[in-house]
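ERR on first pass: missing label on line 2. Operator R.T. fixed the label and resubmitted. Corrected input:
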Amino acid sequence: MFDNAICPLLDNYHGRLTLHGSAVAVGGHAVAFVGLSRRGKTTLAAAMAKSGYPFLCEDVLRVRRDGPAYVAQPSRPVMRLSGDSLCWLSGEQDDGGGKRDVPAGDGLPHVSGALPLSRIYILGDGAATSVECACLQPAKALAALLQHAFVLDSEDKEQMRAHFSRLSDLASAVPCRALDYPRRFNMLPLVVQQVAGEPEG
Amino acid sequence: MINAAAKISVSPDVVSRDIAGDTVLLDLESGIYFGLDAVGSFAWSLLERAPRTLQELAMAVAGEFAVDMPRALADLGELVSGMQEKGLLLAD
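pass 2 clean. output:
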């Protein structure tokens, strides 16, 4: 709760940029997945990690500006997975016990250094019937990112103004895609293929 | 419909950003965001610089987008009224 909810709010309040999202490393760059709760950010990051693309973070995406570019920062090497996701990843029986912390390891590699952020995927609601990925114009990307940023006090207009400005800069600098797919585990290899197969930028 | 002589201005509670030719507005009061098309973005950019009447806005839009004045007045009147209702624009 403190790491995943309170710290991100405080981060954004203090002028940093933190989004509700996960990130993985693909070809020396970070690729991020942002979305509302239960849209599959962690499960997709886990599927990517399982396929050899180490995860940086699984629920809270901290982004730092580095000149004209952005850098995604790693979080602790732990993934909080639901029972069914864990079952799919490990082959173990789902014990129905809810979410569990799974430490990074051989089957779930983690990258501990910050990486340049090459693109952001905004996860859809799962209504797609196949893997669908489309480039978002920066203005649409900004509108989408606004939904996924932690805001501590929406009454504080100066904070909101500054936060909007930071998100606008991010949306202008980092390509964003709308990504949707049926939320079935057997679709994840195709999603991984789609994400990993895209050229940088 | 808004009075053609009223001066229209942007609300101080709205923050905007032009990104690649499109404008995104965030209403700081409600937290709701809006997107503007090319004509709306152009009109917004004019209003950010100074309050203007609907007539003045329509003249600028008609010149920029090669549309006739009646059409510009009608379209902008609708847009401005809608934005005024949402609190994005003010009219004195």
